[in-house]
Amino acid sequence: MLFTKSYNLMNLSLKSKRNNVYVVMLLLLITKVVGFFKLRTLAELFGATHELDIFWAAFTIPDLLFTILVAGSINAALIPLFSDILHKKGQEALDKFFNRFTVVLSTFIILIASLLFIFTPQITSLLIDNENAQQFLNFSTQLTHDDITLFVKLTRIMMLSPVLLGISTLITAYLQTKKQFFVTSLAPLFYNLAMTLFPYIFTALGYKGVEVVAISAVLGSLFHLVIQIPTFSKCFKEKFIINTTILKEGVKDKETKVAIKLALPRTISLLLEQINVVINTVISFSLQAGALSAYKFAVSLHQFPINIIGSAIAQTVLPNLAETNEDYEKFKKVLNQSIQQALFLVFPLTGIMLVLRLPIVRLAYGTGAFDWNDTLLTAWCLALLSISIIGQTVVQILLRAFYALKETWKPLTAIIIGIIVNILCSYFITNFFSHYFDWRPILGQISSQLSDRQETIATIKSFFSDFFRWCATRGDSNMGVGGLTFALGAAYIVEMIVLAKQLDKKIHFIDIEENVKPTLKKLCNSLLMIIGMYLIYKLFNVQLNTTRTISIIILTMVTSIYGLLSYWVGAKVFGIPEVDVMERKMISIIRKFKGNNR
């Protein structure tokens, strides 16, 4: 089960060396790198195959259970509530409440997981073995009886994972309240390590099926829990009790009700966001084998800048926004500076992913069973997903602004609109892209006819006359998976616009000088960088033998370095202030480094 943690790293004040902010940052970075190798392992062992598609689909149900019941409540409710109890009522009160709440939530998770385990065949029938659904999504020839049997088996194996992760995540919240960030950072690292190593181990022992990945996910969840228990045992001063009396006390506890009330808006948001995942998973079955896996591989790559830049800025800006939420002028200044800083960093990374999508995918996953067709399909997804990086990054910051203003329900409107956009685009644009080899030559024909106005207009009319037919029917091209990635990007862009308009009504933060002009400058600078990178990429691609890994590395490095340098110079020319801030920070770090080495 993929696990994401939010840490306010820049504001930690830790006495222990191993809980030092830089140590924690390093662990989080290593976790993300190991998470990348986890997917590379799956790519090497299985490639973008139909069997792996079934695993990803089966993964959705237990992951949804964990995300809705536990993950959404940690930062929204539990950590603030635990901290409040600790400082107002003391260690004993915290331990007793933690005992009661853990028993209540664990019992509920086990009950739901057990019901899902029992009724997995019925749920499967509802999702993917339904005749009406098959007719609507055109995948009646894609799923066999063996596929459905495998789906049920994998789902049942992984149903243990949300139980283990649920208990482990509660312990994480408790330990973070006690400033034990080192061990809570180790937990997701050990989860990813298990998911990376155990598939190799099982395969070496002769187990070849995708079931080994499901078992590895359960073992990873167990590691996630076990690694935290020694530290938890030292911090938890009371005796942990599990019985019906504790369960009843926990259900009646006022603070349990407070936790539920605080977590409810965020939980609903995550539930609605997970609908996108379920919809994309189901629609992916209407495509050719490997479509969902290519989509998942591309999503993992595009999340790197989002997790590193977007999440980090969103986390660190929240305390500053909360401190200034009664002074709208200061609030707007902090918000706009954060958005501009995020855009300054993600624009060039988006351009790099767009131009270098093929070599990036090849370097990331080009091994074992992951062949050239898998590379093309994943790169196609990555190109369309790169656009969503901007939307997702800004959405994270805007959501933090709403939370700082204690507006937790309003963002639901934007999320619902985003889901509607995702549903419509996932279906219609997937159909359109599945006719890729029908309409792609027409675009080429239009570009060659630009000199003849009448011919160009006639061809364009022909294109749009067929457009709605392509959107309504399913073709046979595996490029249809691009509809899923396009839908995700479109949904986040629309969600970003709606959130911005909602927030602007309250604090009037949208201003031509403060954010519109600076954004346009960064956008123009990025477009110039992309054009230059594309020319450099084409030049070196002709000169180098890109069938060799070393040539791909050289091509990627040279093009990326050129792109970053041109973006830096362009930022100076356009007068983008963030580049001066970055320069000052780099000079400061270099001076400190030199001083420490004297």
Largest sheet: none
Give the overall form.
Answer: globular
- Rg measurement, Å: 25 Å
Total beta strands: 0
Mean pLDDT: 80
Q: What portion of the residues fall into strands of 2 or more residues? A: under 5%
Instruction: Please provide the ordered H/E string of secondary-structure elements.
Output: HHHHHHHHHHHHHHHHHHHHHHHH
Structural class: mainly alpha
Q: What report would you give on this structure?
A:
The protein is an all-alpha fold and 598 residues long. It has a domain at 22-286. It has 24 helices and no strands. Helix 1 packs antiparallel against helix 13. The radius of gyration is 25 Å and the shape is globular. The model is unreliable at 1-16 and 135-141 (pLDDT under 50).
Summarize this entry quickly:
The chain is an all-alpha fold.
Keywords:
disordered N terminus; single chain; mainly alpha; 598 residues
Task: Indicate the topology.
Layout: H1 21-46, H2 50-89, H3 91-118, H4 120-127, H5 131-137, H6 145-158, H7 160-177, H8 181-204, H9 211-226, H10 229-235, H11 244-252, H12 254-284, H13 291-323, H14 328-355, H15 357-365, H16 372-385, H17 388-404, H18 411-433, H19 436-448, H20 453-472, H21 482-507, H22 512-543, H23 549-574, H24 577-596
Helix pairs in contact: 1-8, 1-13, 2-3, 2-6, 2-7, 2-12, 2-13, 3-7, 3-11, 4-6, 6-9, 7-9, 8-9, 12-18, 13-14, 13-16, 13-17, 14-17, 14-22, 15-16, 15-23, 16-21, 17-21, 18-20, 18-21, 19-20, 22-23
